[in-house]
Amino acid sequence: MPEKWEELIADKRARLAKTIPAEWKIQTLPAEDSVIDYPAKSGFLSAKELEITNSTATDLVAKLATGELKSYDVTLAFCKRAALAHQLLNCALEFFPDAALAQAKELDEYFEKNKKPIGPLHGLPISLKDQFRVKGFETSMGYVSWLGKYDTDESIMVTLLRKAGAVFYVKTSVPQTLMVCETVNNIIGRTVNPRNKNWSCGGSSGGEGANVGFRGGIIGVGTDIGGSIRVPSAFNFLYGLRPSHGRMPYAKMANSMEGQETVHSVCGPITHSVPDLKLFVTSVLSEEPWKYDSKVIPLPWRQNEEDIIKSKLSSGGLTLGFYNCDGNVLPHPPILRGVETVVSTLKKNGHNVVPWTPYKHDFAVDLINGIYASDGCTDVYRDINASGEPAIPNIKDLLQPNIKKADMNELWDVQLKKWNYQVEYLAKWREMEEQLGKELDAIIAPITPTAAIRHNQFRYYGYASAINLLDFTSVVVPVTFADKAVDAKKENYKPLNELDGLVQAEYDPEAYHGAPVAVQIIGRRLSEERTMAIAEEVGKLLGNAVTP
Amino acid sequence: MPEKWEELIADKRARLAKTIPAEWKIQTLPAEDSVIDYPAKSGFLSAKELEITNSTATDLVAKLATGELKSYDVTLAFCKRAALAHQLLNCALEFFPDAALAQAKELDEYFEKNKKPIGPLHGLPISLKDQFRVKGFETSMGYVSWLGKYDTDESIMVTLLRKAGAVFYVKTSVPQTLMVCETVNNIIGRTVNPRNKNWSCGGSSGGEGANVGFRGGIIGVGTDIGGSIRVPSAFNFLYGLRPSHGRMPYAKMANSMEGQETVHSVCGPITHSVPDLKLFVTSVLSEEPWKYDSKVIPLPWRQNEEDIIKSKLSSGGLTLGFYNCDGNVLPHPPILRGVETVVSTLKKNGHNVVPWTPYKHDFAVDLINGIYASDGCTDVYRDINASGEPAIPNIKDLLQPNIKKADMNELWDVQLKKWNYQVEYLAKWREMEEQLGKELDAIIAPITPTAAIRHNQFRYYGYASAINLLDFTSVVVPVTFADKAVDAKKENYKPLNELDGLVQAEYDPEAYHGAPVAVQIIGRRLSEERTMAIAEEVGKLLGNAVTP
């Protein structure tokens, strides 16, 4: 007889709690809103473990590759810190330190025997969103009806990361359906922001955002179909890469709306620095993912593309567009200041920054929202209803039950409109280049209209999702923090529309004080090398080359 | 008041007839089945014009680039020969020698003034399938209801070819709907094979096959969603490239089922040699098509990929798989002999050729047939019925009116199955490489089960379409000709299934004697450089480096 959904949840919570060894259990949860300093203060981690987890992935793999560090020690440090992260932030759906430590040991033995690393990520723990299938573990993806499904096969990304030497230890939480930029599900509840439990960690890769933001992970792997890598990166003062579709493998992942191809979800890393993003991308590409996943383009790392940007840095500078409003929803004052900070910093350093007029972003956002709901939301409600669990309230704006499915010819019409729009956007890009007489290297824009948002307030996905519709490469760069002393609420603001009014009304200088502020750097399709290099420069100039 | 469809056709035929100047009109059509020698014998073309049209595109652009040849003369020669082709084969839907000669004159003036070519195709006439939009001309694509639609915008491919220096002079015929591998529509009727009017020129880029086969064109541009470049190439003893999706621009083309993205139609060249295929591809890529068409991958010509194959040729040889039966339909004896000829020739020349087991091609063919019909054929019958014209009989097997549309979730299921199948096929490819201990460079296979087919007999698309489902790169290589003296009909053949029985029964050594036989060389996705280099080697070894 099928169990009741509440029982399935209780069972899962009990199983999850048991994965944390007694010696890592926090006896009394801290009362403060922010737990970002907890690892340093709590005494759970040794000085060495703090040093490891406060490092960069690039440094760690260098030390693992020489034998200066052992995978076991690095893995243990991250397992401990992730255990704290989960207890404080509620960010894990699966946690398996024993398997991770066993895997680490094997890698150490390999190193001992062969005197060389097994691959570019030798011994490095990597944190995975709970869409990645890892043999022997459960993938629920926040659906109660999926609980108890243990994977017998692996996602291609996991297989290739494993070949590259990565160690797996945690699969992090997601919102029910994945289609929300906050992280809440009925199984474990809500994941919160390490900097303030009243703020969201973002979503849908929110468990990654929280875990990596807390440094319970050094590289987290998320997915993005409408902001799901970039929003958690932004809300946790991290770097995040949304590669264009076809750059990173996605085969054999769990997903909502599997087989939907009108707008593709993509995999990408969330880290504390651009070199760590690059480490991840180069490591995956070195495994030739196109020989495993038919959707991956045979495009190895193009160092020459990165070098084009580097050479511009040393002569003439970059040429960048920017916008601070997409014409649909005006960002909160901290975000407007964030864009302005980036623009003025770049200009001060000799770069050419010009206004970019967002081209029909209202059209783009409507189109992609229609795509998300094109099956009448049949797929997501099938998986919600299968257990009897309720839908989370956050999905009600985007995914309504029992709406009309698109007809096949309507879908083709949408797909044609999408393509035409993309082609028109490229024409605008070329026009700008003709005007300027040189390449437009990237565009700087908000990624959300708000700094790390208060719970249940995420309403407007358009800054992120318009870029998904274009399939442009985008890198999130952390900029600053909301500051009640300078980010005053707008008086007598005349909203552009009802949604804009709602979003603007949510701003409260006191409540948002200290919340992370980010921008995204947008490059043309499949411009990962160039766009990451630009993001690296922007981060450096802002003083955020490596975030805390 | 809307005109009757018969009147629209009569008007179009009259307009088309007028485009041929009186001095190029054939007074008495030849009685022979083959007209392949007509240009040389008829006296319409001067010796110089015969020399030009019997040349290769690679030679022509070299001479145009030094001023040794004028675009006007080259264009005039091809216009004349295409005029003959159309009168003999019925291959053009639009013919515009005046505009072409004016364009050629401008290019000659440019050369005169600047002492250099405008681009890599300076002054070269290029023949286009009637899906390409050229400003000022009509795109009917074989639908009566589209007659009278004159283009005010151009396909991106046309824009870029124009920038590269190409001259346009003809748009060639297609089957109604494009979804047939023979070329017949109600507007101008049937296009026939220059080698024998009783044979098909193939389809859907059949007008290209006939025109280029007759050397009324030197490079023809077709499209392929299920064999439409490759079959006309095969039936006319030509080379044809079906690039993988995303390599060549397709934006702003006319098409059936516009917006259908489950399996993409792609553009590619049809020529008499591999260097001419390469000339086309490198010329288009040099215009950076990815800056114009969002679906094009930023992948410039990779000389290093071609060089990998070249270096294998000089040490160790190629490693190739082959199959002569896909398990669904056994090819006719001339095709079986064609595959065997290629395999033995390669082996004799030191290459490693091993059997390849086609993986679930029955599944692939069923899946793609379902995709073609996924809108219940609404789109194609809308355009057929809009004028009242009847459907051609050839589409009845593939596209039936009033069948059930796929539901959105059914489509997603099909798309997921497609992806999984592609991933499984890649696994088989890797397994073979592991067995062999080296790279499997490509697979040799039939492209059709028959040599150039008799009219209305094309029944099985699976040799071509399974490769479209995989989105593998494929190059057709002409091999030999059916020979009644050696290609005996199989006695007491036990068919694999009903369709196989029908196909095998069609074979008649007498009727097919002399019909072109070809194979396809299949490479992994986006392997254009390598696969063309392999095709070039195969063609050379067969003695077909440049076909007549």
From TrEMBL, chains A, B:
Molecular function via GO: amidase activity
First-level EC class: hydrolase
E.C. number(s) listed in UniProt: 3.5.1.4
Annotated catalysed reactions: a monocarboxylic acid amide + H2O = a monocarboxylate + NH4(+)
Pfam annotation, one family: Amidase
Location of the Amidase domain: 73-531
Entry similarity comment: Belongs to the amidase family.
Listed name of the protein: amidase
Organism: Paecilomyces lecythidis
Lineage of the organism: Eukaryota, Fungi, Dikarya, Ascomycota, Pezizomycotina
